[in-house]
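Dock zinc ion; give full complex structure.
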Amino acid sequence: MMIINADLHIHSPFTKKSKGKIDFELLAKNAEKKGLNILSTGDCLHPGWLKNIIQLEPIDLGTFQCYNTNFVLSTEIQSNDNVHHLLYFPDLTSLYDFREHITCCSTDLKLNGRPYVDVSSEKLANIAIDTSALIGPSHIFDLFSGLYSHYNTLADCYGSAVSEIYFAELGLGIDSYHADFLKELHPLTFITNSDTHNPHPIRLGREFTQFQVKKPTCKYLFQAIKRKQHHRPVLNAGIPPEEGKYYQTGCIKCQKSYSIKEAKKRKWKCRCGGVIKKGMKEKILEKSTSKQLHYPYHRPRYLSILPLHEIITRVLQEKNPFTENVESCWNALVSTFGNEIHVMLETPINDIEKVTNQSIAEAIKVFRLATFSYKEGRGGSYGTLYL
Ligand code: ZN
Ligand code: ZN
């Protein structure tokens, strides 16, 4: 068995919002610097991107290689109830089979890397299952396209297919601690992914899942998502929820924070006249089926971390993460110790100190031990990290 890092939700240049150059070479090279062993291809239903996918080196029926990075066939789809879903295909036959079933109900398969299909979530899931694909909801708490923005429960969304849903993607702004307040999520594997439209290492793998698998290939990844035969997720890593713009309930004008009780009393109007917006934290607590937190036994640790570029930027108080100072500091660490995830999770702090300034080493330690503190995000403003 080996431990691998995976980012299973990315996008190609064929998705709206994608920026700059994206190709497999760049994705593979950046994945290696980041410390990711497996990436999803993203957008695999798009004919333009698929043409690139089938030119990669096949490792087996469902795994394709570029340099040292393995890619698995995957796409995101929007169903007609506006929920986003992630799909993983075991091989090209399954992918073509699935595509044939949905061609009649989609008008933008050739236009958009993340297509819209005019069928319900339940119907879509049943087509996926019938064609041997794995399907689960993307960024479940997303305000626009997350499952919980449109349905009360998983079963409401997936109906007859719900017993075949094995995973849910947490999405930015949420961790396992919060998601596990919903008991119906306990049987599922949580996956944490970047959902990036940009291959730069500050975006790629900004959230990732660590799995224990026999080999870094599609077949064993499926087993790990289903937690079969000692294959399983061993760590979820992602952006601290406190960083999120709507983590806490607060005013969108002056950012004063409010308790739900106080906000209700004030009819969601702040003293300054601004509107008070309900925070993610409170929304989840309201949905919570039990007030007492129970982690399911299989749930791995959730590690809150920021991309190393962000940490360096904040410690050095640079204007943005793309300055020469930040870049050279990041390069020094990554070229000395192999890759970013290794630096963030494993490299001895003493060794890091020898290569970079002591405050950066300290900041990495603070994230490893989860001893950071935040002025939590609220009312449309990101949280402020105190280092
Ligand atoms: Zn999405
Ligand atoms: Zn996406």
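Observed: The longest strand covers residues 232-238.
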